[in-house]
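Most newcomers find our protein records easier to grasp once they have seen one. To make this concrete, we reproduce a full record directly below:

…
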Amino acid sequence: MRRADRLFQIIQVLRRHRRAVTAAELAAELETSPRTVYRDIATLVGQRVPIRGEAGSGYVLERGYDLPALMLTPDEIEAAVLGAQWVSGRGDPALARAAQDLIAKIAAAVPERLRPYVFEPASETPPARARVVTDGLDIGRLREQIHAGRKIALRYRDESGRESERVVWPVTVGYLDTVRILVAWCELRGDFRHFRADRVLAAMFLDVRCPQRPATLRAQWRRSLGLRRRPSADEADARPAAV
């Protein structure tokens, strides 16, 4: 690896972590020696890159520092395009449009020599095996409600055809190949539940804050998955694969 590339990668690794990263960890990822890492860190500090720390205790990149716009590697470009392809074909309408816009912005911003990685990528997502089913609520509004930390009132029909009315605290949206799953804390059940968006019969986006912040709810939901072999999800017949 060229030294300039290694300096760039050190910044990338430090940006990726919120904790201090030791020289040994940096050396292992960059396939070099800790001594070389020490020299590279000194070079970056000399170039006014705001790195705090010292040998033995680890290094942290101060918040607010950023690299020049879109200094992307070929692998980073392909990763972004691959993800945008998937979202474009399976996301809700607003996210699908945003994914297409993202690809166009990357293509316009990267140097000419890197544009083949945008328009002719070596990786590609296959088309969905079946048509995405129609959602029973506005997923764009749902995502806004999650960010705002506000409740939703649902009328829902489960797999057996039973209808119920719930007030839920939305946590996240899971995107599967053909369906979307709302993960939420259900006031009726007093637990986390997974609701298929296509089985929602009606939804009212309430101007009522959830008692807990979205980040706290997500952390509790993830811990609950670790405590059970499978989530309690009588409202959904599919577990979100990546949410």
Remarks:
- Residues 228-243 have pLDDT under 50 and may be disordered.
- The chain has three domains: 3-61, 74-119, 139-227.
- The helical segments are 3-16, 23-30, 34-46, 74-90, 93-109, 116-119, 139-148, 214-227.
- Residues 10 and 34 are 12 Å apart (CA to CA).
